[in-house]
Amino acid sequence: MKNRTAPMSRLAPRLAAVVLATTSAALPVWGQTSPARGALLSSNADGEEMPLDDYLGLLQRIAPAAETGARAYLAAFQQRCGRSMRTSELRRALSQGGGDPVLLGLIRASHLRDAAGEAQWAQQVRCPGESTP
Known about the structure:
By secondary structure, this protein is an all-alpha fold. The chain has helices at about 1-25, 50-60, 65-80, 85-95, 100-110, 115-120.
């Protein structure tokens, strides 16, 4: 899989920009605030999390391959972990560090219409608390 990391490293900055634009446009309450005014409400509070379908819809409008890859990632997560992924978890997978390499690989495979690559990446999805090999 070493040959796949170079193209993904070029994809990561663009994807991060898409995610930042999507989340900042959709949920302006996530913006930075002055320490004098106190912290903003947590986006993980009950009832405040953006619905997953809305988040995926925004991704689709901005980067269709990102939405398709994210759906493949969500399906693999559901199958491997036995539960649905929350929007906040998907958002973190897209934006934390350079992005989850498995998610970025699924997005790239989706963009290239590489079904074998998608299947290969989907097998590498990790569940929370699971150690990496």
